[in-house]
Write a structure and sequence with these properties.
This is Recombination protein RecR. By secondary structure, this protein is α/β, with parallel strands linked by helices. It folds into 2 domains: 49 residues, Orthogonal Bundle (Helicase, Ruva Protein, domain 3); 135 residues, Dna Topoisomerase Vi A Subunit, Chain: A, domain 2. The chain has a 5-stranded mixed β-sheet. Helix 1 packs across helix 2. The longest helix is centred in the N-terminal third of the chain and has 17 residues. The model has no long low-confidence stretch (mean pLDDT 89). The structure holds zinc ion (ZN). Zinc ion binds next to loops.
C-alpha cells in the first residue's frame, strides 16, 4: 500500500530514531494521526524547541541551554576534579549516585577511526586546552572497557601526562560507556571510591 505523501514523510521521519524500523514508525504515525493530534503537535513543538534551543556546554560538552550547563555553573562543584564520560547518560548515572562532587567532560562517543570518530570529534582538543590551563588536578576516567573505550582512555592519559595531571580510573566491574544508567547508585559510588591510578 502506498501512503499519502505527508503520511509517508512522517513515517520516514520516525525511522531516524534508534530501534525504530518501518513497522514501528508506521504504528507511531498512525497512532498520532488517528487519535493523538494534540500530542502530535506537542511532540512537534518539543522537537522544534529542543533542536533549536539545546547546545553543548562550552566547558564539558554536555547538553546545555546556556553557555554553561547547570553542573559547570554550580560554584559548589570542584573544578579540579573532572570525570571523563562517554555520554550524557553516564553523567546522569553519576549524579544519581550522589557520590561525585567534581565536574565532567562528556566525549559524546569514543575513539573509533574506522567510523570517522577521531580526537576532534570527541572534543579532545578542548580537553587538552583545559588541562593546559592548570585548573584540573585529577582526571577520573569512566570510559568503557571496549576496544574503543580503552583507546580513548589511553589517548586521554597521554594528554593528561603531557600536562602533568594525575589520572585515575573507576574500579572495574561495572559496564561503562553509555551503560552506566543500568548500574545502581551504590555500585557506582563504590566504583568511584575504589578508583585506581591509571598508567600507560
Ligand atoms: Zn558543563
Amino acid at each position: 500500500m502506498k501512503h499519502a505523501p505527508l503520511v509517508e514523510q512522517l513515517i520516514q521521519a520516525f525511522t531516524c530514531l534508534p530501534g525504530v524500523g518501518p513497522r514501528s514508525a508506521q504504528r507511531m504515525a498512525y497512532a498520532l494521526l488517528d487519535r493523538g493530534r494534540d500530542e502530535g503537535r506537542r511532540l512537534a513543538d518539543a522537537l522544534h524547541g529542543a533542536m533549536d534551543g539545546v547546545e553543548h556546554c562550552q566547558r564539558c560538552r554536555n547538553y546545555a541551554e546556556a553557555e554553561l550547563c547547570p553542573i559547570c555553573s554550580d560554584p559548589r562543584r570542584e573544578p579540579g576534579l573532572v570525570c571523563i564520560v562517554s555520554s550524557p547518560t553516564d553523567v546522569l548515572a553519576f549524579e544519581q549516585s550522589g557520590e561525585f562532587r567534581g565536574q565532567y567532560f562528556v566525549l559524546m562517543g569514543e575513539l573509533s577511526p574506522l567510523d570517522g570518530i577521531g580526537p576532534r570529534e570527541l572534543g579532545l582538543d578542548v580537553l587538552e586546552q583545559r588541562l593546559r590551563e592548570g585548573q584540573i588536578q585529577e582526571l577520573i576516567l569512566a570510559t568503557g572497557t571496549t576496544v574503543e573505550g580503552e583507546a580513548t582512555a589511553h589517548y586521554v592519559l597521554d594528554l593528561a601526562q603531557d600536562a602533568g595531571v594525575s589520572v585515575s580510573r573507576i574500579a572495574q566491574g561495572v559496564p561503562m560507556g553509555g551503560d552506566l544508567e543500568f548500574v545502581d547508585g551504590a555500585t557506582l559510588a563504590q566504583a568511584l571510591r575504589g578508583r585506581r591510578p591509571f598508567q600507560s
